[in-house]
């Protein structure tokens, strides 16, 4: 455990980039070999749009990283946050509790809120317009949403009282989880369902990408599935019945056009056709 803490306390930016690139590469190869759905699309064109949006997310997080670092340092220095107020517990348990809480506030709460507040939904909508979900879709976020999520992450670090090594560990696990849950892969149903009791599994998250309500408003989890099950937002839909996208933007000229994707938050919003 101490070795893990030591590594993530000083993890180089190069290593974090390699984890991102390696994850996409590995899941890309797997989904090409064992695809869940056979898409009729130009994969590199689709990936190019998602890679651009991934790059903007990386840049925004890099530019604002000093805020996250200052927040974590302030919390530790001032003994502030849930982790700092806990009685002394084993380091492994301290780490699990911290990761669970970061996932709750920085990911689940952020995601849930983006679906419930119309202004925030305008930006998150871009993620849901993708009708060809694959591993590159994981970080398909409008730059505006990247800022929104950064705010929630910073708030989570403050409330949890998380040390920076734990933030880096969480972000690493989050990247891998996101690529895994969005990958166009098909796990055995029993294995996927078993995993969904502990972590967000591919089939569980893909229900969230079904094009119509109420499924769009379910399965908000990022790494851990406990929050959806605890708060009653878990839903199941056979993977054969899933149709990707969002019913207000099913036209490829809208969801497969980078310029339009960047403009969607500022366009007149449409009401869902289905509920």
TrEMBL record:
Q: Entry's InterPro entries?
A: Fatty_acid_hydroxylase, Sterol_desaturase/TMEM195
- All copies of the Fatty acid hydroxylase domain together span 97-233
Q: Where are the transmembrane segments?
A: 17-37, 49-69, 89-110, 147-170
State where the protein is found: Endomembrane system
Which BP terms in the Gene Ontology apply to this protein? lipid biosynthetic process; membrane lipid metabolic process
Q: Which GO terms describe its molecular function?
A: glyceryl-ether monooxygenase activity; iron ion binding
Which keywords fit this entry according to its UniProt record? Lipid metabolism, Membrane, Oxidoreductase, Transmembrane, Transmembrane helix
Q: Spell out the protein name for this chain.
A: Sterol desaturase
**Taxonomic classification:** Bacteria, Pseudomonadati, Bacteroidota, Flavobacteriia, Flavobacteriales
Highest taxon of source: Bacteria
Give membrane topology per the record. Answer: Multi-pass membrane protein
| Species per Swiss-Prot/TrEMBL record | Flavobacterium hydatis
Q: Name one GO cellular component term.
A: membrane
A Pfam family cross-referenced in the UniProt record is FA_hydroxylase
